[in-house]
């Protein structure tokens, strides 16, 4: 089975992953991550509800699978990260055109994202109180400290990736574009993230090959998220993404 993949993973043996069908069942779609849709899932034996991220075209997203798996496997014990129930490979049936799928099974956060909460309140001519914004930011800072102290940069901090449990707890999700550093002083140079939240030094990496960045890019993105929670949208949201990427570094010169 493993020979079907053009990329070998040193992080996880795809050939040894179990099929999900005996344990987990997909229900309706409840969200979308950077590299896959998220479904409500049910444990067939216990009836427990979970969130299952389904990633298609496995050979094309293997690096993102590795990043997500490493973070959840090694660091999900933090109270602001979702519980991790494991990863499965749903293999295509012989003669079927359906691609293999990776299923990543995590804790279900029934409260939705903090972006959804902020926008819902604004639609009713209300807004998140400052004390609630401060709580969300403090909890998110705690998980960023956890990631950074383990030499991981999230690289896509934004309201859509900060979820609420039914008890009101904060959980950071979507680690597919996270970056693992070799040491605390190591730096990255890959241009990744969501445009409106990207730090200037990350944006610069697209055009200037000598530019690098470190964990502080997540702090910038969290600052943009603070504005998003107050206004329901990030700064420069009125511009298309490419135009926003052009304007963000130049805003620092004003």
UniProtKB/TrEMBL annotation:
One of its GO terms (cellular component) is cell projection. It comes from Biomphalaria glabrata. GO terms for biological process: regulation of actin filament length. Belongs to the protein kinase superfamily. The gene is 106069858. SMART domains: S_TKc. The lineage of its organism: Eukaryota, Metazoa, Spiralia, Lophotrochozoa, Mollusca. Keywords: Actin-binding, ATP-binding, Cell projection, Cytoplasm, Cytoskeleton, Kinase, Nucleotide-binding, Repeat, Serine/threonine-protein kinase, Transferase. This is Protein kinase domain-containing protein. ATP binds at residue 53. GO terms for molecular function: actin binding; ATP binding; microfilament motor activity; protein serine/threonine kinase activity.
């Amino acid at each position: 089975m493993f020979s079907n993949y053009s990329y070998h993973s040193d992080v996880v043996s795809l050939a040894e992953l179990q099929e999900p069908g005996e344990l987990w069942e997909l229900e309706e779609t409840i969200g979308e991550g950077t590299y896959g849709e998220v479904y409500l899932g049910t444990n067939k034996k216990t009836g427990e509800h979970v969130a299952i991220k389904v990633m298609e075209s496995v050979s094309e997203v293997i690096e993102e699978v590795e990043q997500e798996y490493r973070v959840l496997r090694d660091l999900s014990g933090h109270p602001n990260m979702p519980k991790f129930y494991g990863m499965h490979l749903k293999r295509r049936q012989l003669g079927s055109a359906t691609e293999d799928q990776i299923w990543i099974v995590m804790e279900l956060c029934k409260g939705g994202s903090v972006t959804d909460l902020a926008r819902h309140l604004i639609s009713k001519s209300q807004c998140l109180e400052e004390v609630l914004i401060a709580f969300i930011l403090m909890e998110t800072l705690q998980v960023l400290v956890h990631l950074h102290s383990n030499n991981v940069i999230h690289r896509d901090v934004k309201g859509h990736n900060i979820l609420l449990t039914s008890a009101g707890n904060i959980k950071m999700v979507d680690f597919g574009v996270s970056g693992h550093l070799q040491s605390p002083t190591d730096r990255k140079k890959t241009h990744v993230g969501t445009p409106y939240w990207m730090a200037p030094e990350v944006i610069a990496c697209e055009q200037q090959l000598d530019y690098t960045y470190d964990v502080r890019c997540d702090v910038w993105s969290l600052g943009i998220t603070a504005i998003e929670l107050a206004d329901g949208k990030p700064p420069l949201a009125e511009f298309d993404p490419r135009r926003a990427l052009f304007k963000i570094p130049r805003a620092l010169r004003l």
